[in-house]
Structure formats: structure tokens, C-alpha cells
Amino acid sequence: MNKTFLIIQREFLTRVRKKTFIISTLLFPLLYLGLIFGTSYIGANSSTRLKIAVVDSSGKFTSAKIAEANETGKSNVLTLVKDDPKKLSENFETQGYDGYVVIPANIMVDKTPGNISVKSNRTLGAIPEVQSKLNNIWNDIKYEELGIDMQKRETLTGSRLNVSAENLKDKNSNGTFAMIIGYAAGFLVYFILLIYGSQVMMGVMEEKTNRIAEVMVSSVKPFQLMLGKIVGIALVALTQFLLWIAFVFIIFNVSKAAVVEANPAMGEMVQSAQKVFTSVNMGLLLTLFAFYFLSGFFFYSSIYAAVGSAVNEDVREAQSLSFPITLIIIFAIFMLTIAMKDPTSPVAVWTSIIPFTSPIVMMARVAYGVPGTVPYWQLALSMILLVASFLFMVWFAGKIYRTGILMYGKKPTWKEMIKWALRK
């Protein structure tokens, strides 16, 4: 155990002292700052205000109604014009309009209107906002012609069925918030597995190329060496991850007032985010996230380390052998989307228990509530299997490591690697 601790210490200190670790740790907060202020600045300075000419052949769309509708949105301006549609189609741009729309003369409130298109020489992405504004005007026209006064309009507008899902076993469970948290946690584990798992593989390849591993294998058991390397790199990943969380927390609180003032929409997002975090048991969720993050990392890193010990310095060999591992992690993301829709379905339950997919899928399920959605026995079985699989995989990969780390000049197959592992 003392030798394993020394290897963990060596892996941790060697990597946190590297310039790449310091630069990448500092780069993320800077990119985060750039993302917040950059998007706010670009959003404030790059928005275009579409000018749409409205030719009304029905006589129902008045200037007053269009002026009132223009108050509801600033992304586009509707202007009632009296031009002939054919003549307008030829010179609407010279008149300063981005497009024009023609309201047909036969449009009637008791018949479903046909398709009305905004004519333009450009592809306009803001058409839904123009459509919303025209529909608001059309609603006013319908209410007037049908004799519905303001009080009845408010009654009709406010009278609607609000349908929401309620978990009878867990009254506090909220499907929308759970979905947001589940997706965020699942994708976070996914990226960590891919980024830091491949770092373990590259680290083993580097030591094999430098012949350092030959000396280490003669002094410690492969299991100890493998365990020390994986735990050491996991601590590096955890350190960097916690530093990023601390940086983002500080930046978020310092810049929150300025960002909200510059972008009111961001303020609504901040309030929504605060509501999400206060609606769930964050203590339990963070504990489970730490467990599945570390256990999933240990499990996959041991496989990546076995691949790294089997190949030479050729990166293409490493990529071809690690491709099946990457596919399994991507498969877990597909299972995550299924689990988000129905966290109690058989597919969601079993993929959250099987160790190959459980680190990602279980994080999606636990956000819906424990034990309401995820019974204790399922959570316990998933955690026990993941820990047992991790220990088995370290032992299994250590045996591959023992043979592969001393082999050069030959690209092994998965079949040969399994033979190395089964050799006594």
C-alpha cells in the first residue's frame, strides 16, 4: 500500500506541476468569462431589426393595430403600406424593407386562413416572431368581429388546462428540473470520462516510450502500479474540476449584477438556475455525483490504461483500440436520453445498474428522486457492482499491463490482450 501511495503522489505532483495543467486550469475561467460577456456583447450589438411591409387587401389590418403589435416585440417592425403587391415585389428593398407580406382579400374569421408567406430575397430566421405579431393582430380582429369584449377575452385567455406530472411516491419531484439536472450531470460525467480517461492512456504510453515503466514494474506489482496511476490522475482531474467550480462560482457571483443589467434575459436564466438548485436534494445529488464520477473514472481509466500499455508510441494504434471504449460511452449517452423520458422503464433501470453505463445513466435517474423514482436497492446494487467492477477491471487491466508494457514493435489485438490477462 505504501508503494501505491508513492505512485499516487508521483502521478499527482508530476501532473499538477506541468504547464499544461496550469494553463488549462486558468484557461477555462477565462473562456467562461468570454462566454458570458462575449455573448452579451454580441447579442446587444449584432441584433438586426427586420422591417416588414404589410399590404392588407382585406381592409382588416389597421395602422393602429399594427402600431400596438409593434410594441410587443422589437426584433421586427411591421409597416402598413398601400402599394400594389406586384409593384412592391420589385422595389421593396429600395424602399428600405427586408421583406413584405400580403394579407389576402378573402381572409375571414369563420374560415381557416390559408398559408401567408413573408416574401424576401434573404433567408430570415426571425419569421416566427413576425408570425406571432401578425397572429396577435388577427386575434384582435377575430374578437371584434365575434363580439367578444375585453373581459371575455381575458377569461378565454386565462382559462386553460395546466397539466403537470406528479410522482405519488415523491411529491417534491419535479420532472422539468430533474431533466435539466440529469442532463447536466450525465453529460459532465461523459466529458470527464472521455477527456481524463484518454489522459490515462496517453500517460501510460509516454512511460512505456521512455522505458520508465520497465523500472517500476520490477519494483511494484502491476495491480499497485495500475491503481496508483489511476488514483493519481483521478485526483488531478478532481483538483482541476474543483478549481473550475470555485472559479465559476466566484465569477458568477461577482459578474451576476453586471450581466443581468446588460442582458435581462440572462437574469431570468439566473433565477431559473437558482430555482432548479433549490428544488432538489443537492447534498445527496452532489454525493452521488462524486461517487459515480470517481467510480466511473476508475472503471474506464483502467481499460484505457490497459490499451495504453499494449500499444507503442503510435497514436493511431491507440485510437483504433480505444474506439470500442468510446463507443460504449457514447452508447451510455443514448441510454441517458431514454432514461430522461422515463426513468422507471426497464431499459433505464438496467442500464443504470450495469457498470458500463451506470455512471452516466444513474445520474439522470437520481435527479428525479430517491427513493421515489430510484429505490434504495437499485441504487445500492448499482454502486456495489460499479465498485466491484472497478476492482476487477484494475486487476484485469493490471495483468494486460504486466505483459503489454514490456512489448514493443507489435500491434496487439483485443484477443491477444485477453490472453495476456488470463495467463497465470
Automatic annotation (TrEMBL):
Compartmental location: Cell membrane
Pfam families (alphabetical): ABC2_membrane_3 (PF12698)
Sequence ranges assigned to domain ABC-2 type transporter transmembrane in this UniProt record: 19-397
Annotated transmembrane regions: 20-42, 177-196, 230-255, 276-301, 321-340, 347-370, 376-397
Keyword Membrane: yes
Keyword entries, A-Z: Cell membrane, Membrane, Transmembrane, Transmembrane helix
Protein's membrane topology: Multi-pass membrane protein
Phosphoprotein recorded as keyword: no
The protein's name: ABC transporter permease
